[in-house]
Amino acid sequence: MFELPSILLADAGGLMNLKACLILAGAIFSIGAWGVVARRNVLIVLVSLELMLNAVNLVFASFARMHANMPHAAGNATAGEDGQIFALFIIAVAAAEAAVGLAIVITYFRNKETVDTRDMNELKQ
Amino acid sequence: MIDFAFIVAAVVCVLSGATIVSRKNPVYSVVFMLPFFLAMTTLFVLLGATFLASIQMIVYGGAILVVFLFVIMLINLRPEELREDFSMVSWFLSCLGAGFLAAIIALFAQRGTTSDMELKFASKVVERANGSIFGSIENLAYPLFEKHMIPFELASVLIVVATLGAVLLSKKKI
User: Fold this and answer.
1) Complex prediction ipTM
2) pTM assigned to the model
């Protein structure tokens, strides 16, 4: 079994707790949601989607750590690892989503010469 | 020390995230994804999720970022072709959303969680019954291949389908 670096063993002042992590994740998720809603460039919309997925991953990792520190999880050998596995699945889905979304962007640009969502109104007419 | 690392990572996350969504040229957005993913990896390491941090760096920083850069290179937008992106309505909606977010954060920071959940979870390594380490590859592998085996296999099917779909979409003349 390898030795953990000393930064993880040191006693912290306690600023990094669950509340701080959740507020940070909420801020990142809101920034990403604003990018999805307000921007008109498809590439930036896709990047903002990645931001939102990252914020969700941060929430999963925080709650996994909290669950492992709970008193009733002391005897369980893998309490809290389920949250990290969920985050791994989210990363896999994000990779698939980025591949398909960017392929659609390339195809659309090849046909219409634009990546602006204001021009994507063929279904409206 | 952990507090310092957490504050630096959080500030880098928020600032690079704001830069990502506010640049007019998508090249700058994609380039600023790199410090964002680095800071997110730092947060995962501080939370004890070491394997998740390495996967985050490999998949996001190594694969998704490069795919985005390749697509920008293929599309080859000239900067003068980019139009003005924000309208007054979206500025108004943005201010409204920021106000709601500030209200939620203020409420949450004031009320907070119960004292039982205020764990200083970065401060110490979780003691395990069999001496294993939280978030290590061994501890992730057993639940992943036993309890979550079917979603794991379905994720591989999803990635194969996505790969085929991406190849077909970008190859044919549609």
Assistant:
1) 0.85
2) 0.85
